[in-house]
Design brief:
By secondary structure, this protein is mainly β. Helix content is about 0%, strand content about 45%.
């Protein structure tokens, strides 16, 4: 009869629990007890269903209900044992009704099924069949009680309207194919319903079993159909006593599709390989699936990625959809190019004689995973630091101000959503050591730009060291926000040699790397690679050593004033000031002042003449000299400026 197919979460393309070994855990001690058979709900037998009545719903004899029969470890508390009944035998159970009485070995494993438990019914599995496909089915069959009269069972699809084959077997393996399709001829048989052009064969097995095989074309609908067995007759005259079934194999070409519409992998990281979902039989040697790159993606091969032209599915029976990782199919190129996130679409090439590209969840539906999109996330960015100083030549013991910036000099990608758009963001360590020759550092930090980073601290003293600082990339093709440190440094009083102050920025995030070029068409600031990960400015303190002498007898006594020279009251005398730079550095802007001593008068309007080196521009008088002073031009090391002026002796 035609049965309604229950809704399934996935298709079935092979036999589940083909030899009735479950329920058991593979440990013989936990198999169905060797001394008996068992009857219980088919829901406890993976893969198999039945049309038999449920427990205790009819009388098998006057006063005797169709109760379950249990053998340890199967008990009334075993899950799902109260459903529609199925009968399983252990392979050393002795059937007293057999002629001769003997143990009944299983054809495969340690357990097999009998058609039927208490009433004539059908056991079956729901399998997804595709219209037009070639199908192969094999099963082992054995009679129960007679070595001369065979038990007869039929294998069909949905009902006897679609007969695959009818088999007759005694308990010593005698018998053969009674029907192949709708005819007694096994090669070829006649089409029966949707079972097209079957061919059938049989061979003697061991332990009284025969092996039956049928191959045919399915012409029915692409849908889930039940492939099952029905008892036609038994040597015992009771359809519930006989017809042992074991080891059913169904050969169906695999239905395949990609799992997931999108895969995301990051350049420079372990590649997430695509997963193929497989349901069906893959022959020895495996099945080769050709993979194509669909035109229209933004990633290019081999510059960004490579894809193997094919993948081989390992041989095996994938009765239910099984995920197979396509190891080695896709590889990514880890370059140093700052670029947008990119996509590439892969498709499975059609090969209808080898596999079906179809839906592995709903039988007969189109594949949801005929193609899959790879999103390739970039891993390149550019970190940048700059440094300037307000005064590269401060006086020894003086101060200077450094301005240091740190930023992610990269624009964010435009392709993707959520965290895909932040793959150019970086986590960095910022540092600026206290340079040689400075006695103190104090600094403040200010954040600006968009997106705005966060200062690790608003202010501080000493060297700058900040680990794990997030520096976001910028929006709309611009660099990210800036951290600006304003540093005040105090030069040691004895520091005369030049010294260098260096800032550095170091990438902490192994997921990103410094880029050195930019993808054509992607808008982002020009990168500097690792070259702009440090910045330095030199500070050369001014260490001029100025001396001054004053005399009214220039050229005498080495231009040093004499203690006993003679001047005449009421007459003028000329004084000379000699300013000499004895230091290593030039002196610019030295201010010379003089205060007349007792006994002389220096008229304010008298001219001060300046000769030698460092002569400033302009005319000067004694008023300038005794007032705010006269500012000299530059005196190089070893140079002397001479200032001459006349005063009156009182």
């Amino acid at each position: 009869m035609l049965l309604a197919v229950p809704a399934q979460a996935q298709i079935q393309r092979g036999t589940v629990n083909d030899s009735f070994e479950d329920p058991a855990n593979g440990n013989a001690a936990n198999d169905i007890n060797a001394s008996c058979f068992t009857i219980f709900g088919a829901d406890a037998v993976p893969g198999w269903e039945t049309t038999h009545a449920v427990t205790d719903t009819f009388f098998v004899a006057p006063g005797i209900l169709n109760s379950n029969v249990y053998c340890t470890p199967v008990t009334a508390t075993t899950p799902n044992v109260t459903g529609r009944q199925i009968e399983l035998w252990y392979n050393s159970f002795v059937d007293a009704g057999a002629v001769p009485a003997a143990a009944t070995p299983s054809a495969d494993g340690t357990q097999h099924a009998e058609l039927n438990a208490w009433q004539n019914s059908r056991i079956y599995q729901n399998v997804c069949l595709i219209q037009g496909e070639q199908i192969g089915i094999s099963v082992s069959h054995r009679g129960r009680v007679s070595a001369t009269v065979g038990d007869v069972a039929e294998m069909n699809i949905d009902s006897q309207a679609n007969t695959v084959l009818r088999m007759i077997t005694t308990n010593n393996g005698g018998g053969g194919t009674q029907l192949c399709g709708s005819s007694a001829s096994s090669t070829p048989g006649a089409t029966d319903g949707a079972v097209g052009n079957p061919t059938c064969s049989t061979s003697l097995g061991t332990g009284g079993w025969r092996r039956y095989t049928a191959n045919f074309t399915w012409t029915g609908t692409s849908d889930s159909h039940n492939i099952g067995f029905e008892a036609i007759s038994t040597a015992a005259g009771n359809p519930a006593a006989g017809n042992f079934i074991d080891n059913m194999d169904i050969t169906l070409r695999p239905v395949i599709e990609f799992r997931g519409a999108t895969y995301t992998t990051r350049e420079g990281q372990t590649v997430t390989q695509p997963i193929l979902v497989v349901a069906g039989t893959v022959p020895a040697g495996g099945t080769t699936v050709t993979i194509n790159i669909v035109a229209g993606g933004t990633a290019t091969s081999p510059a960004d990625f490579t894809v193997a032209s094919s993948f081989t599915i390992p041989a095996g029976v994938y009765a239910t959809p099984t995920e197979v990782t396509m190891t080695g199919l896709v590889s990514m190129v880890d370059d140093a190019v700052i670029e947008d996130n990119e996509t590439v679409t892969l498709s499975i090439a059609a090969a209808p004689s080898v596999y079906t590209i179809g839906n592995t969840t709903t039988c007969g539906s189109a594949a949801t995973g005929a193609t899959t999109v790879y999103r390739i996330l970039d891993n390149d960015m550019d970190l940048l630091t700059t440094k300037t100083t307000s005064n590269a030549t401060p006086a020894a013991g003086g101060t200077t101000t450094f301005t240091v910036t740190y930023r992610n000099n990269t624009a964010r990608p435009t392709v993707g959503t959520g965290t895909d758009l932040t793959v150019h963001d970086a986590v960095a360590t910022l540092s600026d050591a206290l340079p040689t020759g400075f006695t103190a550092f104090s600094w403040t930090c200010a954040a600006s730009g968009t997106p705005t980073p966060a200062c690790p601290a608003a202010s501080g003293t000493g060297a700058i060291t900040a680990a794990s600082v997030t520096l976001p990339a910028g929006n709309s093709g611009a660099a990210g926000g800036v951290l600006t440190y304003t540093i005040t440094g105090t030069v040691a009083a004895t520091q005369c040699a030049a010294t260098t102050n260096t800032s550095t920025i170091t990438d902490n995030d192994t997921a990103v790397a410094e880029g050195s070029s930019v993808q054509a068409g992607f808008v982002t600031p020009a990168p500097g690679g690792t070259a702009n990960n440090s910045a330095a400015v030199a500070v050369d303190p001014l260490c001029a050593d100025l001396s001054v002498t004053k005399t009214n007898t220039p050229g005498v006594n080495g231009n040093v004033d004499q203690a006993s020279d003679i001047v005449v009251s009421g007459t003028p005398t000329t004084y000379q000031l000699r300013v000499t730079n004895n230091g290593a550095d030039a002196a610019t802007g030295a201010v010379v002042r003089d205060t007349p001593g007792a006994g002389i008068t220096c008229p304010a309007g008298n001219t001060v003449t300046i000769t030698g080196d460092g002569v400033p521009v302009g005319a000067f008088t004694i008023a300038n000299l005794t007032g705010s002073g006269i500012t000299l031009a530059t005196l190089a090391s070893g140079q002397t400026a001479v200032l001459s002026f006349s005063c009156n002796v009182q």
